[in-house]
Design a protein that fits this description.
The protein contains 18 helices and 27 strands. It has about 625 residues and is an alpha/beta fold. Strand 16 and strand 17 form a beta hairpin. The structure holds fructose -6-phosphate (F6R).
Length: about 625
């Protein structure tokens, strides 16, 4: 959840760390802090409540000088949003500083023990416990690495931890416990970097080493030495990441979310690249690492994810069941991991995750592994934890970095990759002939240009509707079948960035309760493409009208019946029914974006949210 950056080398650490944190601010923006060491000035801590800009202003007034530094942006878990609770945290001697991403689950127990030893606490955070524990063992060991190793042995939970000590200015020590957060080390020319995410250091180097669970790294200017927590040496060569740092910048758009909505045609195309053979009606998913025999044997699939990615899983269920005739159960990862699921033989877990770092999704993958069920990951972040632990896949989205906290392009790319997977499964199981697959591929290939046309036409329309409806307190989103998850997604987008209460419902369920909410103020967004369920959806539209609700319909171009029944229609190009969600969601993203903009909300960094949810 929190952002972490560290630097050691010939340059001023402050600039490198702050610019890295700028790339990570989407992860948490409750407070920010930095610790920089210099032989003359010693350890200098600067912390500030609120967004990173507050810290930048503070550093302008009171710069910190030195060539060794670590910094942090916080998404609060323990303790209020105050300067005292901002990272870095010091040990009692003041020589050791620690930053952390994750949760120390047994921090209260450890804190009581440390207080009983006479160690005074200045914050309410769990991270301060780590700093004091390291300090305690430093007094016995006389070195940071073994001190941190001993402290780690006592922590429960998932943590990414970075520490430095004023008595050892030639090193940073970093460690990773569990799945709470990644640690990536960047190897440069006579300089090294450490961060929670790749974009933080991509401007400086693309040669990266990823720490695995229960590993510790001693990072110097020359590189990194990695060991397990038990002290065994790990040999791991850096991997080179092909991302373009410019893709992580906002370009001409006002917000990352807007940019990412507009990037969807490109992202949809990239999801297809190299994976289809239209002439022969074949899908190639080389990364899948499951052969035809394994795919034929599959009896059921568990799709698991959180939030928007969970909605992608719901859509994937329709795709896989209808195209490949394999049954699919969809679970919230946070529920799956604790419900002691009975998975059975010949099952497969499909994890959907943009970041590849969502702790509940990773835990669901672990649960599957514990029951002998292989998992595949539909994932965007290259080299992320989900990508690395999946047995098959990763099936990368290739959507490029998604910075806006509200997921947009990763969602539609997940739908594309899920569709490809469903076709691949259908190919192996013979539920579709090559010529039928060819028809589906043609529809997939046409989708990026349809999405481009849709964005161009729908953006001004959604801006106008936002002008008309941005003051409402509630909104209802209705859809049926494969468009029901799109109703959920439309509602989630609106509530998370505009703070308007919104609910998504299967349209047929409306009359069993939510219809009571409808009055002349209430916008009801009805997703009504001309698919087999269309006549039922039209009946639902009429039911809303009869209660004087304001109907905003998403329907096919040229649908005059719908135009006559709704107050407003946003038209979308037609495609195959199972692919229609990819297009239908785009006006909902745009509507949410313009409503939030009109309400003056912080679109890219909505309150209380963070991009990678690495805590439970
Ligand atoms: C909503 C949103 C979240 C994420 C969820 C899972 O716009 O982005 O609901 O979808 O936190 O994140 P990932 O996909 O990174 O596992």
């Amino acid at each position: 959840m929190c952002g972490i950056v560290g630097y050691i080398g010939p340059r001023e650490a402050m600039g490198v760390v702050v610019s890295g944190l700028q790339r990570l601010e989407y992860r948490g923006y409750d407070s920010a802090g930095i610790a920089v060491y210099d032989a003359a000035a010693g350890l200098q801590l600067r912390r500030s409540v609120g967004k990173l800009q507050g810290l930048v202003t503070r550093l302008q007034q009171e710069p910190a000088s030195g060539q060794l530094g670590i910094g942090h942006t916080r998404w609060a878990t323990h303790g209020d949003v105050t300067e005292q609770n901002a990272h870095p945290h010091r040990d009692a001697s003041g020589a050791i500083v620690v930053i952390q991403n994750g949760i120390v689950e047994n921090y209260l127990e450890l804190k009581t023990r440390l207080i009983n030893l006479g160690i005074p606490f200045v914050s309410q955070t769990d991270t301060e416990v780590i700093a004091h524990l390291v300090g305690l063992y430093y007094a016995e060991e006389g070195a940071l690495e073994p001190a941190l190793r001993r402290a780690l042995a006592e922590l429960r939970g998932g943590n990414a931890i970075v520490a430095l000590c004023a008595h050892e200015p030639e090193r940073i020590v970093a460690a990773r416990l569990g799945n709470a957060g990644g640690v990536v080390i960047g190897i440069g020319q006579d300089e090294s970097f450490v961060a929670s995410d790749v974009p933080a250091i991509l401007d400086h180097t693309r040669d990266l080493i990823f720490l695995e669970d229960r590993e510790l790294a001693v990072i110097t200017r020359e590189g990194a030495t990695i060991t397990t927590l038990a002290g065994e040496r790990v040999q791991r060569a850096p991997v080179t990441i092909p991302w373009d740092p410019i893709a992580a910048a906002r370009g001409d758009f006002t917000h990352f979310m807007e940019k990412e909505i507009h990037e969807q045609p490109r992202a949809l195309m990239d999801a297809l690249r190299g994976r289809i053979d239209q002439e022969r009606g074949l899908v190639h998913l080389e990364d899948l690492r499951l052969d035809d025999a394994a795919l034929r044997k599959l009896d059921r699939i568990y799709a698991t994810a959180c939030g928007t990615a969970w909605h992608a899983g719901l859509v994937a269920k329709f795709m896989i069941e209808q195209l490949a005739r394999v049954r699919v159960e969809v679970d919230y990862a946070s529920e799956f991991r604790y419900r002691d699921p009975v998975l059975g033989a010949d099952a497969l877990l499909m994890a959907f995750t943009q970041s590849g770092e969502t702790v509940d999704t990773l835990a669901a993958m672990e649960e599957a592994r514990a029951q002998g069920v292989p998992s595949i990951a539909i994932v965007n972040a290259i080299g992320s934890q989900a990508a690395r632990v999946a047995d098959g896949g990763p099936l990368y989205l290739h959507a490029g970095p998604e910075i806006g906290v509200a997921s947009t392009k990763a969602f539609t790319s997940m739908l594309m990759v899920a569709y490809l997977f469903a076709l691949r499964l259908a190919q192996a199981r013979g539920t579709l002939s090559p010529s039928q697959i060819g028809t589906h591929l043609q529809a997939l290939v046409e989708l990026p240009s349809k999405a481009a046309r849709l964005i161009e036409q729908a953006a001004p329309r959604c801006r106008d509707l936002a002008e008309r409806y941005h003051r409402v307190g509630d909104a209802l989103f209705l859809g049926r079948q494969v468009n029901y998850p799109i109703a959920l997604e439309g509602a989630l987008k609106l509530k998370e960035i505009s703070y308007i209460h919104a609910e998504g419902y299967p349209a047929g369920e409306m009359k069993h309760g939510p219809i009571a909410l409808i009055d002349e103020e209430m916008p009801v967004i009805c997703i009504a493409p001309r698919d087999p369920i269309y006549p039922k959806m039209i009946s639902n539209v009429e039911q809303v009208r009869a209660r004087r609700g304001q109907v905003i319909a998403i329907g096919h171009e040229g649908d005059e019946l719908l135009a006559a029944k709704a107050h407003h229609v946003i038209t979308v190009p037609a495609t195959l029914p199972l692919l229609q969600p990819v297009l239908n969601v785009i006006p909902l993203q745009l509507f949410a974006y313009y409503v939030a903009l009109r309400r003056g909300c912080d679109v890219d960094q909505p309150r209380n949210l963070a991009k990678s949810v690495t805590v439970e």
